[in-house]
Specification:
Layout: E1 3-6, E2 10-13, E3 17-22, H1 32-40, E4 48-55, E5 60-67, E6 72-77
Antiparallel strand pairs: 1-2, 3-4, 4-5, 5-6
Protein name: Sarcosine oxidase subunit delta
GO biological process, one term: tetrahydrofolate metabolic process
Pfam families: SoxD
Length: 88
C-alpha cells in the first residue's frame, strides 16, 4: 500500500486522497492566447510543485510540496499563502 506522508496528519494511505492538480493562479485581464496557454499547457519538468490534495475522510484540503522526480512530499503550505483575489 502506498502511503502519503502528510506533514499535517502523518502517513495515510494514498487511497484516502484525491490529487487535484498544481496550484496555479489564473491570468486576469488576459487575451485568448494567454488563456489558452494557461488551460492547455503545463511545465512538465521534474521538480518541487505546490499541489492541491483533498483528504476524503477528514474533508480537508491541503497544499503540499511534492518533488515530482522522487514522488516525495517535502512540505506543507498554508492555504492562505496560495489564495488569490477573484476579479470582480
Amino acid at each position: 500500500m502506498k502511503l502519503l506522508d502528510c506533514p499535517v496528519i502523518g502517513s495515510r494511505p494514498i487511497s484516502e486522497f484525491d490529487y487535484m492538480g498544481e496550484v496555479r493562479v489564473p491570468p486576469t485581464d488576459a487575451d485568448e492566447s494567454t488563456w489558452s496557454d494557461y488551460v492547455f499547457n503545463r511545465n512538465g519538468a521534474p521538480g518541487v510543485l505546490k499541489e492541491w490534495w483533498y483528504h476524503r475522510p477528514s474533508g480537508r484540503w491541503y497544499v503540499l510540496l511534492r518533488d515530482t522526480l522522487t514522488d516525495r512530499i517535502t512540505g506543507h503550505v498554508d492555504i492562505s499563502e496560495v489564495q488569490y483575489e477573484l476579479p470582480s
